[in-house]
Amino acid sequence: MQQTKRTLGLPAVILAAALLAIAVALVSQYGFNAQPCPWCVLQRLLYALIAIVAALGLPRPMRRYRIVVGGLVLILALLGIAAAAWQHFVAARSNSCDLTLAYRIVGMDLHLDQLLPGVFEARATCADAAVNLLGIPYDFWSLGLFAVIAGVAIQCLRKPGSI
After folding, report:
1. CA–CA dist 156, 151 (Å, integer)
2. Which residues contact 17 (CB under 8 A, 6 or more apart)?
C-alpha cells in the first residue's frame, strides 16, 4: 500500500495542477465571459498535453518512465512559461493575434478550434484577453503554475521512486 502512494505522488500532483488550470480557464470563459486569445488557447493545449503525459506516468514505477515523464513534462512546462511570458510582454500589446505562432499551431496546423471549439477556439484578441484575477494578470498566474509544474517535473527527474 505504501508503494502505491509513493508511486502516484508527483505525477498525480502534475495531473491535478494541469486539469485545474484547464478547469479554471473554462470557468473563466463560460462563467465570467473572459474569452481566450490564441496564446491562452495554446497554453490550454500545453496543460492538456502535460495532463496526458502525467497520466501516462501514474502506473509506471520504473526509472525510465520517471525520466521520460519528468523530461516531457519539464519541456512542456518550459514551453508554457515561454508562451505565457510572450502573451504578457508581446502579444497583449498587439491589436491582432492573427497569424502569430499560437494562432498557427492551434488553428491552422492542428485545427483544434474546429475539433473542440468549446475548449480550443480563440475568441478574443490578445489585447482583449489581457485580464486580471485578484490584481494579477491571468498570464502571470499561468506562468506561475507552469513554473510550479516544471519544479515538480524536476523532482520527478531527481527523486528515485517518485514515479
Report:
1. 9
2. 145, 148, 149, 152
Cell of 159: 527523486
Q: Which three cell numbers, joined as nine digits, stand for 1?
A: 500500500
C-alpha 124/C-alpha 5 separation (Å) is 42
Cell of 118: 468549446
Distance in angstroms (rounded) separating the CA atoms of residues 74 and 53? 11
List for the chain the helix, strand, coil content (%; round to 5).
Answer: 75, 0, 25
- For 47-162, strand residue ranges (E) read 132-133, 136-137
Q: Are strands 136-137 and 132-133 parallel, antiparallel or unpaired?
A: antiparallel
Do 49 and 76 form a contact (C-beta atoms < 8 A)?
Answer: yes
Contact, 46 vs 19, CB < 8 A?
Answer: no
Instruction: Give the Cβ contact number of residue 153 at 10 Å.
Output: 27
| Predicted confidence (pLDDT) per residue in 71-119, tens digit | 999 999 999 999 999 988 888 777 666 667 887 787 778 888 888 888 9
Confidence (pTM): 0.87
